[in-house]
């Protein structure tokens, strides 16, 4: 059998084998066996040295043509096998979209944020605005505008983290009130605001203290504001957070930015005022501080203290949450333990 006949027979046999192969691994083996250095086409080309000058180009051309046709056939078969393989895989792994989905458990706001949200809704309903401000604050707004000049002894109670001599992490959200008073046009109406947010103090972390905690401070400035307005507002806060039966009492205290100043107690919601471990057997629980805005604070903000007055209060949502839900360690709020936090499902 001459070389041309061998090439023709090789082509027919190879095409038949390629057309019937069903495995990608097998098609690769066929490619190596047919077109590799030790394959039959290479053998034919090596035998061309025994041919005449006239036959060599004819056989060489035929060999190249057969090799190209087999290469094309192998490529097409491989592509077809890959499509078949993918289709089988998709058929095997397809998802039945008519099946019910896996339920995803919905999360909830952090318990402290729930308390803050509750307070914000209350005050928005009373016509207040919610104002935010920077946590990295100037000493001027954090202390001096709050009637706490340099070397004032009350600063020791609010020792904080200083970034520079005049820039610090705010110890209270009161600076937001000072900034807002500077901008407010009192000829267009009173200022009624709350300023919730994170504050920082150099406290030793223990069951009731944290170097970072939250505050919600409130401020009302207008003509003819009295202590009665403050007491009524505090009563609403206590009953909204702790229950409709709660009563409050005011005790004289001292804050540099209010005069007169009061500590606010709420009747114990555990024992209904009879005395228990929660209220230390007094029937009352201290919850916040408040007072009438000091004239110096108004004057420094550019407000005429002869015409305008007001009240301010400050409360801790962390402490409110501890009291309301009987949590005895403030650090629990910041450990991100879902087992703890999921106990406080948001209502409404």
Structural notes for this entry:
By secondary structure, the protein is an alpha+beta fold. The chain has two domains: 3-93; 111-341, BirA Bifunctional Protein, domain 2 (2-Layer Sandwich). It is built from eleven helices and nine strands. It has helices at 3-20, 24-35, 40-46, 55-93, 111-125, 139-142, 174-183, 227-242, 295-300, 317-325, 338-341, and strands spanning 129-130, 136-138, 167-169, 191-200, 212-222, 248-255, 258-267, 284-293, 309-315. The strands form two sheets. It has a seven-stranded mixed β-sheet with strand order 1-4-5-9-8-7-6, sandwiched between helices. Strands 2-3 form a two-stranded antiparallel sheet. A hairpin with a 2-residue loop joins strand 6 (248-255) and strand 7. Helix 1 packs parallel to helix 4 and helix 2 (24-35) packs antiparallel against helix 4. The longest helix has 39 residues, at 55-93. It is elongated. It starts with a helix and ends in a 7-residue tail after the last helix. The model has no long low-confidence stretch (mean pLDDT 87).
